[in-house]
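User: For my dataset I need records formatted as: sequence, then structure tokens, nothing else. Please produce one.
Assistant:
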Amino acid sequence: MEQEIRQINFAFMGFGHVGRAFARLLINRRNWLLKEYGVEWKITGIATKSHGTCIDHAGLPIRKILGSWKRHSNLENFHNGPVCASHTDFIRQCGADVLFEMSVLDLSGQPAATYIREALGAGLNVITTNKGPISTHFRALTKLARLRDVELLYEGTVMDGAPVFNMVRQNLPATRIRSLRGILNSTTNYILTQMEQGTPFESALEYAKNAGLTEADPRLDLDGWDAAAKLSVLIQALMGATVKPKDIERSSISEETGKIVRAAVRRDRRLRAVARAYRQGGRVIGKVELQELEIFDPLAAIRGLSNILIINTDTVRELAIVENNPSVDQTAFALFADLVSLLE
């Protein structure tokens, strides 16, 4: 008996490094999706802030778009559909079953939260890498997804492609997470470990910016907001408490931090920007703070762009997830992993 083929249409909100890496991954795994899940897909819409918008219900020529992509590319050249006066118009008219939301982080969660709400309300499944709307509008968006009987998945919001939410959801049934701690921001960890070796703060930051490691606004990294947003998502999704980024105490790093870093090294210790959450009575407390760690602490061994998350539970005690030197490809894989979860 032949396998029934399902046609699924995708739309992208954002087409930066992650979006293009994900499109390439979809192309490379097309035959796998067909064989394992009987799925054929096409991308029917792409909307961006700086490169225009395009819709084609017959399927956009994604290989051609990727092959011709330049800094000043204009997606309007590939448009073959209704006029879109706004991104909400795009969501209503793109003809997609799944919206991949990959816009730039904004601490307010907007406008991404509006896009996600519009898509869920229209009956689309949503997969996002954007920690902003998930950290600031978690309860409202997850409730709307349940009401509309669609999925809102967000594996890529924390630790790129490392399986955090999917692992807990699928492999830790009836488990209470007591606390968690980790290093969640690659930029600050890179700068701190560079300063251990004597690199000036400004030089390490400049390299991180030129390499595309920082957020569009590096202050979101340096002032702990990026880590706070990720910690907020972890607390809300895994610990059941409503703690938003603004509720989380934060520490910043600057040129002055270099003195503290080098003093710690002389004592055979390491300075790290540690994100942690713990239960206190009926509350969950979240903090992003600079901590001087003993050399044998697992977090002290995390260098450069690597991340770690240690989860303390009431069933399997402690679990550690380590992601070594992640790249944009890992974030793209998080989108793919969530897609597979959606298909199962």
